[in-house]
UniProtKB/TrEMBL annotation:
<keyword id="KW-0288">FMN</keyword>
<feature type="domain" description="FMN hydroxy acid dehydrogenase">
    <location>
        <begin position="1"/>
        <end position="341"/>
    </location>
</feature>
<feature type="binding site">
    <location>
        <begin position="80"/>
        <end position="82"/>
    </location>
    <ligand>
        <name>FMN</name>
    </ligand>
</feature>
<comment type="similarity">
    <text>Belongs to the FMN-dependent alpha-hydroxy acid dehydrogenase family.</text>
</comment>
<feature type="binding site">
    <location>
        <position position="239"/>
    </location>
    <ligand>
        <name>glyoxylate</name>
    </ligand>
</feature>
<dbReference type="InterPro" id="IPR000262">
    <property type="entry name" value="FMN-dep_DH"/>
</dbReference>
<feature type="binding site">
    <location>
        <begin position="270"/>
        <end position="274"/>
    </location>
    <ligand>
        <name>FMN</name>
    </ligand>
</feature>
<feature type="binding site">
    <location>
        <position position="158"/>
    </location>
    <ligand>
        <name>FMN</name>
    </ligand>
</feature>
<keyword id="KW-0285">Flavoprotein</keyword>
<dbReference type="InterPro" id="IPR037396">
    <property type="entry name" value="FMN_HAD"/>
</dbReference>
<feature type="binding site">
    <location>
        <position position="237"/>
    </location>
    <ligand>
        <name>FMN</name>
    </ligand>
</feature>
<feature type="binding site">
    <location>
        <position position="215"/>
    </location>
    <ligand>
        <name>FMN</name>
    </ligand>
</feature>
<feature type="binding site">
    <location>
        <position position="130"/>
    </location>
    <ligand>
        <name>FMN</name>
    </ligand>
</feature>
<keyword id="KW-0560">Oxidoreductase</keyword>
<feature type="binding site">
    <location>
        <position position="132"/>
    </location>
    <ligand>
        <name>glyoxylate</name>
    </ligand>
</feature>
<dbReference type="Pfam" id="PF01070">
    <property type="entry name" value="FMN_dh"/>
</dbReference>
<feature type="active site" description="Proton acceptor">
    <location>
        <position position="239"/>
    </location>
</feature>
Length: 341
């Protein structure tokens, strides 16, 4: 596909619709129930206005940051999303190559359709691993150890999926994994009977060798418990509006979590990031970095690795432009004062 037609992230979705099966497109694009949260994730970003700074002398802003002792070129990470072979025949290998070319951390989903061993061979940038804890805790432990042994540099435990959400639209789209698309590290869909609790988080923290982040925290009290249970980081997320419909937009939830955490651990966020200005707003409101889900899936569907790279590069370029126009030379210089009050 000619990627020169894709100037922004919305362009990728428009073109992906034409290239993906209806089933795969509905799987990626849909949210839970009436899809209110998915809509609010966007509306809340749109409602935030920015405060420009003129004549500030900033030429090329510096987007680098350090996270868990890892040096990153920019604060845009690839969110964990399942089943990349539904989106492109090269699946997660293309995502890993695309992330590498865009200097982005790629958080690989537990529901990868490519074995971790193959992904690590393809990667040129740090990989993190997203974990779904299964009833079989021994399997969970060996999966964590495999990821650590293979060099994955952080573990994101998804905590907002005690049960899968009410996915009416996905069901209507006829979601079904083709027989040749295999989730090598997950024995079938999530249908757990032994609920994940804070005790399990403490248990994982007792042997994990990499930083453990909890993904799917939305309020201050859970953020506090996360820290008390030993988490090294928090990801404010509503699972892209796919789990519990009518929970707030993540950009609305972020400031309270960031206030409670008060810099004790890094807070990341995802949900609705579609423009560089969204990245700037998230950082201004307390995020150290952001993750991007659906647009990466659409980039992958449009053009494999190149599509993934271009999605991240567009966001990064837009972020740099927003930094210049708000007078921020560095990521740490992005604070509340970029928001129009
Ligand atoms: C997801 N997400 C997700 N999260 C997770 O922890 N494990 C997973 O396997 C998946 N799978 C998944 C598949 C697809 C198709 C989507 C769209 C999302 C959620 C994801 O990590 C992230 O929280 C949201 O996608 C972020 O919102 P945006 O960027 O899609 O608006």
């Amino acid at each position: 596909m000619d990627l020169s037609e894709c100037l922004n992230l919305a362009d990728f979705e428009e073109r992906a619709v034409e290239r993906m099966s209806k089933m795969a497109y509905e799987y990626v694009a849909s949210g839970a129930a009436d899809e209110l949260t998915i809509r609010w994730n966007r509306q809340a970003f749109d409602a935030i206005k920015l405060n420009p700074t003129v004549l500030n002398g900033i030429g090329q802003p510096d987007t680098r940051l350090s996270l868990f002792g890892q040096e990153l070129s920019h604060p845009i990470l690839i969110a964990p999303t399942a089943y990349h072979k539904l989106m492109h025949p090269e699946g997660e290998l293309a995502t890993a190559r695309g992330a590498g070319a865009a200097a982005a951390v790629y958080v690989v989903s537990s529901f990868t359709t490519t074995p971790l061993a193959e992904i690590t061979r393809e990667a040129t940038q740090p990989l993190w691993f997203q974990l779904y804890v299964r009833d079989d805790r021994e399997l969970t432990k060996s999966l964590i150890q495999e990821a650590e042994d293979r060099g994955f540099r952080a573990l994101c435990i998804t905590v907002d999926t005690a049960v899968p959400g009410v996915r009416n639209r996905q069901e209507k789209g006829g979601f079904r994994l083709p027989d040749d698309v295999i989730t090598h590290h997950m024995p079938g869909p999530l249908d757990e009977k032994k609920p994940l609790t804070w005790k399990d988080i403490e248990w994982i923290n007792s042997f994990a060798r990499t930083p453990v982040l909890l993904k799917g925290i939305l309020n201050a009290s859970d953020a506090e418990k996360a820290i008390q249970s030993g988490a090294s980081g928090i990801i404010v997320s509503n699972h892209g509006g796919r789990n519990l419909d009518t929970v707030p937009a993540t950009i609305d939830a972020l400031p309270r979590v960031a206030d409670q955490v008060n810099q004790r651990v890094p807070v990341l966020m995802d949900g609705g990031i579609r423009r560089g200005t969204d990245v700037l707003k998230a950082i201004a409101l307390g995020a150290s970095a952001v993750l991007v889900g659906k647009p990466v899936c659409f980039g992958l569907a449009c053009a494999g690795a190149e599509g993934v790279t271009k999605v991240v590069e567009i966001l990064r370029t837009e972020l740099e432009i927003a930094m210049i126009l708000t007078g921020r030379a560095t990521i740490s210089g992005i604070d509340h004062s970029v928001i129009w009050k």
